[in-house]
Structures are given as structure tokens and as C-alpha cells.
Amino acid sequence: MSLTLRLAFHPRLHNVVRNFVTSCSKGAADTVVVPKSSGTPLIIEDKWKDDTGAVEDREAWVETLDNSTDSTQRGLIHLNPRIFASYPRLDVIHENVVWQNKSRMVNYAHTKHRSEVRGGGKKPWPQKGTGRSRHGSIRSPLWKGGGVVHGPRAFTTHFYMLPYHKRVRGLISTLSAKFAQDDIKIVENLDMPSDEAGYLEQLCEDRYWGPSVLFVDESDIMPRNITLATDTLGHMNLMPVYGLNVYSMLKHTTLVLTVGATRLVEEKLLYNLDRPDGRSLLTRFRK
Amino acid sequence: MASRGTEKALSLLRRLPRVELHNLKPNPGAHKNKTRGRGIHGGKTHGAGSKGSGQRQNFMRLGYETGNNPFYLRFPCQNYYKGHHLKLSYVPLCMGQLQKLIDTNRLRTDIPIDVSQLIYTGLFNVKPLEKEGGFMLQDDGMDHFCATLNLEVQWASESTISAVERNGGVITTAYYDPMSLEAAVDPIRFFKRGKAIPRRMLPPQNLIEYYTDPKNRGYLADPKLVAQERFNLAQKYGYQLPDPRESPHRHMLLEKKDPRQIFYGLEPGWVVSLPDSVILKPTDPELKEHYLS
Environment class of residue A76 by beta-carbon count within 10 Å: exposed (0-12), middle (13-18) or buried (19+)? Predict the structure, then answer.
């Protein structure tokens, strides 16, 4: 890690423990390769650690999008198991996906009922004496070309609100499921040396990311190079933390979070798991 | 949430295909179609059954037993329900729970605790319209209780009273009529209505006895008799009664509501305007006379 880069991203990281030598290798058989970078390796500790959970703390490599250095791994990050190793409720994930799809769906199908179809005001033939069946209008639903009973009426929205805690649960389940399947990657930031799409595509291919990749950063102002590189790529997208949602996470094969975004996601979701006014959110949403 | 089952599910997921939009589905049996099909697709009778009241929609009246002498006529005297329109139910508040609220900083102990404070923790709901009269202090977890409080509840037993007083606290049982309780449960909603704070009504006839009894620390009891009963209870349960007048928090401990008062620091007849942050007090002598307790 070059000196300038280290200085650039050092103040943004919390609880950085340096001089990391022990606890890196566990036994002789499976030694963990320590990333060989010019700077000291770093461990980013869990900020909201609690020892109550039976699930072990999760760890992930902190990588970099800079391919020019000798090692792409910068260190290790501890992830909160309540967010990244909680029970993967696939049914709740499904409910979230259905909700996201339906809430933006508007049905434009439209049919006319008997009063809206043109004509049909006059009684087609007298009630009695013709020998024909009784009819009052040629636009009755019984007639060909008549109105439609209980047909679809535009514009029907399918909008509804999923209960608040299910939405929180859906995000946590998706993050946990994706992390368990090695589809979440942590990077220190989204800085790249090149602004070409080919560079990013090659980088993702080398690391077995993708084919579709979602990059998530803290804020919605992204670094210039990655913005230009992903501009022409439909399958690599950028998203701020406030836009993170279940559908987009599943739509993309790999989710790439920056360290800042990871901590922000953890903070927001942990707050929602334990928020004191959780009861007030149970009230039904009204349009 | 976190358990060995979680670890197992996550390790299982590592060996399964990637969770994607196309392989998600709801739990089996979770989805049930609410509507029947139309026309020939709705089943033989569209769910109405054949013959009888199900088909004809003439539902039997409540309590009718198709020709039998109905229960309510066979046993006309059900004393359990006698005076049900006068009876109140209370929201249970366990002493252990109260201690937990204090330990987790959900409840402040430097101010007197009443219905509004308890509701403000966000863990309780009192519904005066459903004949709930407030909070009933229960002795579960009493051994862990160690806070010094000025507590006002609507019902308390002898043992819970002793637990509060043993720790140097003060407890009062007070009655709130439904209108006052509605205001005390959600003060902000009440203030937004822009109405004058009502006078708290006196308890109904069946509750007068409870709230005038010094043994229950009733708010209508003679303070001298209450002091005597505090001493008697300490003798009975065998503890040294701490004197709240010598406590460093004596101002908080000795603060007491007027029997007509709903909120601490606000008198009946006042109007609280939240947008202007102003309290309007009546000036008309007739109004003053009306709101005087």
C-alpha cells in the first residue's frame, strides 16, 4: 500500500488494529496467507460486538480495486453476525421481492361496462309479440359486442406495504444468504487507477466476481473512475447505501460493499433490530 | 435468532445453488387463494354447502341451540358477569419488569413515575375504552427490585407496596376516570386537540373504599394514616423504613398529584399549545371556580 493511499483512507476506518501478527494462522495444516503489501496488515474490528450470540463472528478480506499493487488484499474485517450470519429466511426474501415487484406495478388493462359502450339506449325490439327473447339493450353483457361485467379497470395499482420488520428481516436474510454463498465482497473503497470499462470487467473476471456486480458505497457521490467505467456496462451498477434493497442484491450476482458502506448497513440494521419504538411501527400502513 | 440451527442453515446454503430471483418461492402452504372461481369454476355450490342456513344465509341468533332450551335460559344466574359494566381490568406491571426498565434506561427515576411515564417506555398500551383502568403492580421479580421511586399505579398489593417502601420509595394508588386516562396515556395527542385539561373525576362508588384506604396507599387517604400504615407495614415485613424526607431526592419523592390533577406540573383548566409552546390559563372567575378541586 503506497503511503499516499494509506494516508487517504486511514482516517475513515474505525478501530484499526495494527501490528497484526498472531491469530492469523490456525495450526500448521491450514495456514492463512497473510496479504503481502508494503503497509502493515490491518484488522477492522466489529464496532457493535456483543458476545450474546451463539453464532460465530464473521470475517472477510478487505480487498482493493487497484490491480497495480502486488497484493489486492488489504486486511481483514470483522462483520456483525446478527446482520451477516443470521438465519436466512428465504420465504421472507421472497416476500420482499414480490412486494418490490408489485408495489411498482400498475395494471393498464381496461374494459367498458354496458353504460360505457357506445349505443344501446334504445330497446332493440318490443317486449312482447315478436317471438324473440326479451332484451332492453344491444350492449347488455349477454350480447356480442356488449359491455363486460367485472372486467379489469385501469388503472389498478398493486401497491401495498410489507410490514416494517419483514422489510428489515428481508435485508438481513439476503445479506446473510449472499455472504454464506461468498457473494459479498468487501473493498476498502471504490478507487480505481483506470476509468475504462475493460479494466473493471477484467478485474471482476480475475476474481470470479459477477457476471453482474453491484457496488455499494456510503454516499451517492462515487469516485470518478468507477463512475465512468460502469457507465457503459449494464451489468455493473453503483448504488448508495440508502438505495440498497433486496431485489437489487438478488438481481446482481456479486455484491461489493465498501468498508464504510458495510459499517453503515450494520449500524442501520442493528438499530432497526433493537429500536425502542418498534411497537409503533406495527400499525398498518394506510395509503 | 442466533443458534446452531442458523449455522447449519448457512452451511447448507454454501452447498446449494445461488439464491436468485428465479429460485425463490414462498413456504409450502403459505399462499391460499381467497377467491373462488366464477361460474362453473367455483365448485358445486360456491362454498355455501347444500341446504339449510349455510346456503340460505339465515344464520341462527346468538345462543340459539336449534330447539334445545338454550344455555342462557337454562342457567339464568351467572354471577361472574354481575356488574361487568362497572369492573375494570388492569395492565399487569411486574416489579422485575419495572427494574429491567430502569436498568435499561427506559424509565427515568429522577422524576415521579405515573401512567404517562410508563406508557412512554413504548412497551405498554392501556386502552381506557376497553375498560382498562391503568396499571396493576404485580410481585413477580420482586426480590430483584432495588430502585427508589415515586410511583403512582392504579392497583397494588401489600407485598409490592412493601417492596417499594423498603427501598425508600413512595407509592400511591390513584384512580383515573376513562377521559383522564385517555389524556394521560397519550399526552401529545391530547394537547394537539387544543382542549382544556379536564378535572380528574373521583372514583366510582365501588372503588371509593379502595382509594380511601391508607393500607392501599390510596390517593384519597389521610396522609397521617398513610404514614402510620407505612410504619406498620415495615414492622410486619421486618425492615427499617427509610424516611423519604431525609433522602437526597426528597423533592422528587414527596411530589404528589392533586386528586383532580392528571399531569405533574399542569393544573386542570389549562390549555397546552404545542405549536406555540404556550400554556394558556383560565382568567374567568367562573371557570377558575369550576376547575378548583
Answer: buried
Q: How confident is the model at residue A53 (pLDDT cuts 50, 70, 90)?
A: low
Q: How many contacts does A have with B, using Cβ atoms within 8 A?
A: 77
Q: Looking at the predicted structure, is the pLDDT value of residue B220 above 50?
A: yes
Task: Give CA separation, A85 vs A45, A59, A75, B11, B185, in Å.
Answer: 16, 10, 20, 10, 40
List pLDDT tens digits, range A268-277.
999 999 887 7
Q: Does A283 touch chain B (CB under 8 A)?
A: no
> A181, A247, A255, A275: best mutation site toward chain B, by most B Cβ within 10 Å?
A181
A182 and B30 in contact by Cβ < 8 A?
no
End-to-end CA distance of chain A: 53
Angle, helices A90-103 vs A164-180, to 10°: value is: 120
Angle at A193 between CA A192 and CA A194, to 5 degrees: 95
Q: Any idea what DSSP says for residue B17?
A: P
Nearest to B19 among A95, A177, A278 (CB): A177
Q: Is the pLDDT of residue B42 over 50?
A: yes
Tell whether A182 lies on the interface with B, counting CB pairs under 8 A. Answer: yes
Q: What is the DSSP string of B250-275?
A: HHHHT----TT--STT--TT-EEETT
Residue of A nearest to B25 (CA): A94
Q: Lowest mean pLDDT: which of A212-216, B166-170, B287-291? A: B287-291
Nearest to B18 among A82, A95, A183 (CB): A183
Which residues, 6 or more positions from A248, have their beta carbon under 8 angstroms from its beta carbon?
A: A214, A237, A239
**Gap between the Cα atoms of A185 and A178, Å rounded:** 10
Give the whole-number percent of chain B exceeding pLDDT 90. 76
As a whole number of angstroms, the distance between CA B58 and CA B60 comes to: 6
Residue A60 near chain B (CB below 8 Å): no
Residue in A closest to B121 by C-alpha: A276
Asked if the model's pLDDT at residue A6 lies above 60, the reply is: no
Q: Which of A249, A250, A270 would you mutate first to test chain B, the one with the most B CBs within 10 A?
A: A250
In A13-29, which positions are buried (b, 16+ CB within 10 angstroms) versus exposed (e)? beeeeeeeeeeeeeeee
Dmax over CA atoms of chain A, in Å, equals 106
In angstroms, the CA A194 to CA A225 distance is 6
Longest dimension (CA), chain B: 84
**What is the model's pLDDT at position B49?**
81
Which string of DSSP letters, residue by residue, matches B63-117?
Answer: T--TTS--HHHHS---GGGTTTTT--EEEEEEHHHHHHHHHTTSS-SSS-B-HHH
pLDDT of A120 > 80? The answer is: yes
Whether A95 and chain B come into contact, CB under 8 Å, resolves to yes
For B28, the closest chain A residue by CA position comes to A91
The 8-class DSSP code of residue B16 comes to: S
- The pTM (predicted TM-score) of the whole model is 0.73
In 3D space, the residue among A269, A64, A252 whose CA is nearest the CA of residue A172 turns out to be: A269
Query: What tens digit of pLDDT does each residue of A181-198 get?
Result: 999 999 999 999 999 999
| Mean pLDDT in residue range B169-182 | 96
